[in-house]
Amino acid sequence: MNPTRGRSTTGDATADTREARRIEERLARVQDELRRTRSNVRVLTEQVAHLAEVADEAETRAVVAETPLADREYRVAAVDRDNHAKLLAEARDEVVRLERTRDELLDRLLDLEGSR
User: What is the average per-residue pLDDT within 73-78?
Assistant: First the structure.
């Protein structure tokens, strides 16, 4: 018996094995989500770059044309660019959060492996 836990060492090993399996499963889910989110970041980065060019061109037309329509087109393009930039920032924040979660899970897994 393990005097500190009141269980046999065999029971502790079985519990640790189950815990390690749960951590590994969660780690796989986090890694899949991280892969998808990184892919989303790449797509959003390209979209923001494109929308920034569109907004810059629309701004130039608005300045040169000085018409309400050209000004409206610029505002719409700028809003699209800004909305996508916000989505990109959120996706990057999500990558950081997922990486932190992954690192914590790996640390827990290593602690379990070290206690065996």
Answer: 97
E strand or H helix that includes residue 40: helix 9-65
pLDDT given for residue 114 in this prediction: 81
Collapsed DSSP state (helix, strand, coil) of residue 22: helix
Query: Rounded distance, CA 54 to CA 83, Å?
Result: 14
Q: In angstroms, rounded to a whole number, what is the distance separating the alpha carbons of residues 5 and 40?
A: 46
Q: Which stretch of DSSP H or E encloses residue 21?
A: helix 9-65
For all residues of the chain together, what is the average pLDDT?
91
Mean pLDDT of 53-81: 96
Query: Is the CA virtual torsion 6, 12, 16, 19 positive or negative?
Result: negative
Per-residue DSSP letters for 44-110?
HHHHHHHHHHHHHHHHHHHHHH--HHHHHHHHHHHHHHHHHHHHHHHHHHHHHHHHHHHHHHHHHHH
